[in-house]
Amino acid sequence: MAARAERRSFWTWGYVSDEPSDAERAEAARGLSERIGAEVAPPATPQIVDIELRKPRLEVPAALAGWVSTDHAERVTHTYGGHSLELLRAMRGEFVDPPDAVAHPRNEAELEATLEWCDRAGHAAMPYGGGTSVVWGVNAPADAEGAVTIDLDEMNSVLEVDDVSRAGRFQAGILGPDLEAALKGKGLTLRHYPQSFPWSTVGGWVATRSGGHYATNHTHIDDFVESTRMLTPRGWMESRRLPGSGAGPSPDRMVLGSEGTLGVISECWLRLQKRPVFRATAGVTFADWANGCNAVRQIAQAKLWPANLRILDPVEAAASAGLGGNSALLIIGFESADVPQGENVRAAVAIARDCGGSIDDDAIVVDDGDGRPTGRAGAVGAWRNAFIGVNAGLTAGIGLLSDTFETAITWDRWPAFDAYVRDRVGAVLNEAVAGGRLSCRFTHVYPDGPAPYYSFSGVVPVGAEEERWRAVKDAATAAVVAAGGTVTHHHAVGRMHRPGWEKQRPALFGDLWRATKRSVDPNGIMNPGVLVDP
What we know:
The relative contact order is 0.12. This protein has 15 helices and 18 strands. It has a five-stranded antiparallel sheet with strand order 5-6-10-8-9. A four-stranded mixed sheet has the order 1-2-4-3, with helices on one face. It is globular and about 70 Å long. By secondary structure, it is of the alpha+beta class. The protein has helices at 22-36, 72-77, 84-91, 108-121, 176-184, 202-208, 251-255, 289-301, 314-321, 342-354, 378-388, 414-432, 465-482, 498-504, 507-520; strands spanning 68-69, 101-103, 124-127, 147-150, 158-162, 167-171, 188-189, 225-232, 235-238, 264-271, 273-274, 278-286, 308-312, 328-336, 365-367, 400-406, 434-446, 449-459. The chain is 31% helix and 19% strand. The two termini are 35 Å apart.
């Protein structure tokens, strides 16, 4: 299919059409002004023609000029990922380390030629995906002898669908909405919905081990991968397509989470499923956060496998679901292509009630295949609308600091872990920002533990955003690693989480990964600085 005709926004998530208007940004600034009792105003909307870039440090060979460019707009729009600090720099016109060129190979032959040129010339090569990295995973290194961003947006087709095995072969550059649109007519779906779904790609999902909206059972893209094909500087590596195998270490496991450090993923086979017909939802409130978490654990361990099993603490429930600030909200959702879900949702609600949860019977909404809307009303619907909306540019540059960090921990350590993180991060947050707010929800849940997702926000002096963010982020990373959690559950490592990842992983695994990288990328050109040094 054709590549997206619309240009990606360089200062907010999405495309140019997704950019908030000046009026919307002014309204957001007025709201913050009323909150803090001082007037703030949004900075002027940046124009791409006004952005100043250093001159390219390389010259594109004539043989590659059909798909490799040093065009100004291409370099601007591929400088940053989607983290709030990156978008703030873009809003302010700060483009210190743009890529020197951007490649849009249209086929594997052009991809080979691009990577061969980078390897021969010593240029850093950064696979781009959809550019939604929030961990500094797509940026050009400052000390490279030329840096080339590789964007596979022209390699975006559904190559093959196996209706019998329910699997599809996809080029890595296909975007989430295009993939689902292509499968809809066949009655199939991948049903992997990271929050970046409208703008992210299959290759990016695999490279970063993305997490989708499913809260239980099939959650990470890992669960869907059947085989992968990746070009390294040493050549191609393609795994055999199998439903499972016990033949030694899995080559796909080397590709999953490699974050562009070994090569460029060009295509993969992914497991599919029938589109859901039966649905059921419920929103259960808890006066006590601990009791709500206990209910989540019991439902997860009952292996009912709800598609949605997310609990919001009272702060999160008030901010995102409209509750009063004293109750936690547990959102339960089931779906199936073949089996009515009323019995499952009622079994989950019964467990929640036994743990102290409250819900009226008529608030349990069941769709037995007749298309009745579920998850659209009340607190559940309010949370859904808040969760889907992503507009990072709305409040950029007015002194509102807002970010998240996520992790995972086993159930036995969860209460102490939560208390420790809130204490350590809360103390720094109160010093770093005015009106600091720290909240938590579960995004994914396993029988042996939750994946808590913390959000923090507050007001800081304009110009001090990065300094204050660093203080809070460093405290968060130190706390989750010291307490035994993972430095990231689904946001990838990038350059941002690398210090925490180095503490989390076994030291010998670091040696193993460096040796692996040297074997396929001897010149160290692939995404330098991510995961390990070149």
